[in-house]
């Protein structure tokens, strides 16, 4: 049985993340999309908002569950008895970073195997920070994030008055 975790900040979830979620759900029995609560990161959305966005966009995928966690990924994986970590790779820069994380996670929890999924070519240039850089100036983000999320992002910037 493959119980996989796909972890990230998802601030906000992009079409690139959603593509990885859909593909990972097909190769796992259960996929937990885990939102990381990182006190050192200044996020646009609260952890509850990010969880809600992920629940909305994954509502029609039966074996996907959304969770939040604090602290080490390796500890969270142990806590929920997961055996696979899913990571997305856009380019060689992602690979260098992700390889390091994978090696460290492997030392901290030897029950976890990492599977890398390469980004679809449509999503190679997408990142949560790119979404925010465009949205802050009122640019079109329709091609970057799931349609259900566009309004939440626009609303957030309107409230901030930027
Ligand atoms: P973090 O904020 O922890 O870097 P992200 O939420 O940006 O996390 O990313 C979580 C995972 O999704 C990482 O494995 C990252 O490489 C992957 N990822 C991010 N954007 C894309 C994309 N456009 N296509 C495929 N994978 C992606």
TrEMBL record:
Protein name: Phosphopantetheine adenylyltransferase
InterPro entries listed in its UniProt record: Cyt_trans-like (IPR004821), PPAT (IPR001980), Rossmann-like_a/b/a_fold (IPR014729)
Highest taxon in the source lineage: Bacteria
Keyword check for Nucleotide-binding: yes
Cytidyltransferase-like domain segment(s): 5-133
Organism: Candidatus Fimicola merdigallinarum
Keyword entries, A-Z: ATP-binding, Coenzyme A biosynthesis, Cytoplasm, Magnesium, Nucleotide-binding, Nucleotidyltransferase, Transferase
Function according to Swiss-Prot or TrEMBL: Reversibly transfers an adenylyl group from ATP to 4'-phosphopantetheine, yielding dephospho-CoA (dPCoA) and pyrophosphate.
Reactions performed catalytically: (R)-4'-phosphopantetheine + ATP + H(+) = 3'-dephospho-CoA + diphosphate
GO BP annotations listed: coenzyme A biosynthetic process
Residue(s) at site: Transition state stabilizer: 17
Enzyme class label: transferase
Family matches, as PANTHER family: PHOSPHOPANTETHEINE ADENYLYLTRANSFERASE (PTHR21342)
């Amino acid at each position: 049985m493959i119980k996989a975790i796909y972890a990230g900040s998802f601030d906000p979830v992009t079409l690139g993340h959603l593509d990885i979620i859909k593909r990972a759900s097909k190769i796992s029995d259960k996929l937990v999309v885990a939102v990381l609560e990182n006190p050192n990161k200044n996020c646009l959305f609260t952890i509850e908002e990010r969880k809600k966005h992920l629940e909305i966009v994954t509502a029609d995928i039966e074996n996907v569950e959304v969770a939040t966690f604090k602290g080490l990924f390796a500890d969270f994986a142990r806590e929920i008895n997961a055996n696979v970590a899913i990571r997305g790779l856009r380019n060689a820069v992602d690979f260098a970073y992700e390889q390091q994380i994978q090696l460290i996670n492997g030392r901290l929890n030897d029950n976890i195997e990492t599977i890398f999924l390469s980004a679809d070519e449509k999503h190679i240039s997408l990142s949560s920070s790119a979404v925010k850089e465009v949205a802050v100036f009122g640019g079109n983000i329709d091609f970057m994030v799931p349609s259900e999320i566009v309004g939440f992002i626009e609303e957030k910037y309107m409230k901030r008055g930027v």
